[in-house]
Amino acid sequence: MLGVIGILLSSCTNGSNTRSDIIRKTLPENTGYLVSGLNENLNFAGNAMMVFDSTDFSKIRESPLPKSRIETAKIAPDGNLWLGLSGGSTREDNRVVVLDTAGNELSEIHACLSPTAGIWFYNHSAIIVCRDTGFYATITEINMSSFTVERKLQIKISDQQPFMAVSSGLSGSSLGVIGLTAGPQEALTYSILSIVNLDTFSVSAMMDLGAGTNIWSVLPYEGRFVLLNAQGRDDPKKRDMIWVTPNDHEIEKAVTLPTPSPLWGVIADEVLYSFHNSSWNSISVTPDRFLCSTNLVTYQQSCLQLPEHFDSYGMEVVGGNPCITHWGEEGSSGLYCLENGKLELKIKYEAASLVVLSTRE
Amino acid sequence: MTQEVSGTLILKDKLGNTRMKQKIMNLLLVLMVGVTMFGARPAYAQEEPPIDLSLDRNGNQISDAVETEVTTLQALPADQQRAEIEHFVSKLPISADTLALQERAQELSMSLSTAKPEETQAILEELTKISSELDEDPVIKKVESDLVSLTGYGIQDSTTPSPSSAAFNLLQKGDILARQSWFGFLFPWAMKYEHLGNFNGNSQVFETYPDLFGLFAPGARLHPLSEWQTKGTYIGLGHNKRVNPSQITWAVNWAMGKYGTDGRTPYNWDFANKQTDASLYCSQLTWKIHKMAGYDLDSNAWEYQLYVSIKWGWQVMVITIPAAAPDEVMLSPYINVYSKGWN
């Protein structure tokens, strides 16, 4: 009661407090968002998100989401949730939707086609990375106050060589955009890392990573990018992790891991937590899935073998434990966390795909 | 730019092509053929009694009339199948309400080719709604079900999820990926598959997509294979068993150069016009690729024409015969569907 009065008094005496500030203060310090945004059944009728307290996984609220494929989501420094809508198997989308902490839609912005490759925040702007046509990518900068498009940048190799942006990562002012391109060996994938300088809003480097690279995670770590190669198992050079220094545009090293093919990853306290799926975006299909932790100094790795075909579309570290989403058979979908060597279902959630964490500043 | 020639206003685009004139001519041709069919039942249908779908002398749960029709069509030469389908469908005991829905669908279908981009979504949404209502008509439901049972091809034959997904490991450049949809939003006249893509190697699929927000965004796209591997989708994989690998590789590369990479080719809503290079729908792109390699995949398969005619009225063949629908491609005698299943 006193707490509530405290908030109300604060809103009366401090004219700068907005409704969002008040609502935000009622959210726990650590809030998680579990998104179901890939289930195309009935035209994404089930798209929804659950907001949860990440200290105990208790549900705060649940709300529906726009009926369009959602492959990227990010919490802005102001606490708002930004979602990229990419359409579905029968139509395209170019919208980014901004929701406040109560789930109210603040803005719908036509950013660029297929905003699937990342959302970042830099210098009071939102940076949206779009796959666009798949032959070239588009980066759109959006003013976070007015939600207006400020400028766009196209990343293209040539008319003959495609650049299909699939993921990105931000380290300082360097945005690393990873894209798939074409190459002579049909069974392999080829990745190219484009480094965009966000201060000059221009491409500063295009780094060809070669045959056998199928990279979908660009993780910033100590001024470098750690690229995770889901095709590590089939890569002729057996590269599972590739370290890149964005400022020098150099490949620092490539690492082979005992359990190959990391797909998604999160780095926390010198440890890479990774979900492994060598079938992802590949014609080489296997049922094996792993959840691993790798010391980034010693490269000692320990892995839990997951059930066959245990697919996941996102991961986070929650309370020091790696957690992955899983969209499985009825009743088995949700958020799973590795605790004491065991994988536990923490939140049951139909067709769970993305998980995003917010820590209040 | 505009220029008046002989009293007819012709619009010329920057390349000097008379796109609008071509579009108008196509529409007039289709309308001329269509007007003779709209709302008119053929003479023979007016004299013969409606089909009795309840007769099932062999007790196999399939209507004798449908069994006989399938046998008849299987034996007929291709150029006689259309007339036979018209004849059969005209005798179905369709209710007046359903006939009215079919007529409304025909109007909407004809309007798609000239609709503004911002209008296409509304048209497709209404067609999807009509599709659901038609699916509930007991006569249509019965005949469709019997047809799928007899041919082994249709949405209904993949209702049970299979434990394994499609065999992506067998994909070769130029192979066709086909996706089934339960709601027919993109292509309401689907019998089984609604959308096609073309495998480009390197885990990439070359395909065309519409933009339903009226932004004139180009339709030719490159998508990651992972989108075709998403859980909850039913995929078929087809291989042109006659074409040689280097021929089809060349044809895919040719198509990417002609229609893609610089974003100039929009989606084609005029499904009957598959000849145009100015815009493309998904199966039209596939048809173009294989045609360039020497094979015409527009099979006009009787199974497909019969299915869509049962549901939408035989007048729908005005569109479906000149068009190259995804099902017509997958039913082509040149295509071996080597794998199918749920992701």
Radius of gyration of chain A: 20 Å
Low-pLDDT runs of 5+ residues of chain A are: 1-25
Total strand count of chain A, please?
28
- Which structural class best describes the helix and strand composition of chain A? mainly beta
Helix content of chain B: 40-55%
Overall pLDDT of chain B, averaged?
A: 83
Oligomer: heterodimer
Distance between the termini of chain B: 50 Å
Q: Specify the helix fraction band of chain A.
A: under 10%
Rounded Rg of chain B: 21 Å
- How would you state the average pLDDT of chain A, rounded? 90
Instruction: Please provide the ordered H/E string of secondary-structure elements of chain B.
Output: EEHHHHHHHEEEEEHHHHHE
Number of strands of chain B: 8
Report the major sheet of chain A. Answer: 4 strands, antiparallel
- How far apart lie the N and C ends of chain A? 24 Å
Per DSSP, the total helix count of chain B is 12
Largest sheet of chain B: 6 strands, antiparallel
| Helix-strand makeup class of chain B | alpha+beta
Report strand order across the widest sheet of chain A: 3-2-1-28
Descriptive account of the structure:
- With 361 residues, chain A is mainly beta.
- Chain A is built from 2 helices and 28 strands.
- In chain A, a hairpin with a 4-residue loop joins strand 5 and strand 6.
- The N terminus of chain A is likely disordered.
- Chain B has 343 residues and is an alpha+beta fold.
- The chains are: A mainly beta (361), B alpha+beta (343).
